[in-house]
Amino acid sequence: MKRLGSVLHTIDNLLIIRADKTLDMGLLSPNSMVFTKKMQNIGKIKEIFGPISSPYISIRISKNVSSPELMGMKNERLYLK
C-alpha cells in the first residue's frame, strides 16, 4: 500500500486530504480506490487540485461509510492499494 495523505476536512460526502510528500504523483488518477490503514475501502479519488509540489485530493465517499466514521477520520492517514 502507498500512503496517499492525511484527512483535513469532511464536506458532505467528500473528504479533502493533503497528498503525502512521499507520494509518487504518477500513481494518482481519478477513480483510484482509497483505503484506511485497516484496509477498509472508503471511496475513490474524485479530483486532484492545488500546487503540484503539494496537491490536495478530494475523495468521494462510498455509501458503506457512516457519518460517525467520517467525523472520526480527521487527521487519519489514507492509502492507495
Would you mind describing this structure in some detail?
The chain has one helix and six strands; from the N terminus they run βββββαβ. It is mainly beta and 81 residues long. The chain has one domain: Probable tRNA pseudouridine synthase domain (Thrombin, subunit H), CATH 2.40.10.230. The protein has a six-stranded antiparallel barrel. A hairpin with a 2-residue loop joins β1 and β2. The radius of gyration is 11 Å and the shape is globular. The N and C termini lie close together (5 Å).
Distance between the termini: 5 Å
> What would CATH call the class?
Mainly Beta
CATH topology type: Thrombin, subunit H
Average the pLDDT over all residues and give the rounded result: 90
- What is the tally of helical segments? 1
Round the Cα radius of gyration to an integer and report it. 11 Å
- Number of domain modules: 1
The biggest beta sheet is recorded as:
6 strands, antiparallel, barrel
**SSE pattern:** EEEEEHE
Q: Going across the major beta sheet, what is the strand order?
A: 1-2-5-4-3-6
Percentage of residues assigned to helices: under 10%
CATH architecture: Beta Barrel
CATH superfamily: Probable tRNA pseudouridine synthase domain
Given as residue ranges, the uncertain stretches (5+ residues, pLDDT < 50) are none
**What class do helices, strands and sheet pairing give?**
mainly beta
Strand residues, percent: over 45%
- Overall shape: globular
Number of DSSP-assigned strands: 6
